[in-house]
Amino acid sequence: MHAHKSKLLCSFLAICLLLIPLVSPGLAANPVEVQEKTAEGIAADLVVLRPLGIVATVLGAATHVVGLIFSIPGGNAAESGEILVKDPIKFTFTRPLGDF
To answer: Which pTM was predicted?
Structure first.
């Protein structure tokens, strides 16, 4: 059972890595201008970026909790939470599909 989950995770990550080139040329062409939504961009956002955003949110939250030991005495716990937790949540859950 564990081997099946590992193979599934590796397959998912391989597919994500293969889909990145579909999105990156469009982003590199006009990095400042608003990009027109395309089916490929929306699909890549749904299949690649949203799951990675969820992973970033979970890892960021865990990092923030562990880092509280250092950020509370340093006085930047709110800033740490903003960068590690709130930004990935906004990117993953509040951004319109296909908007990068």
So the answer is: 0.63
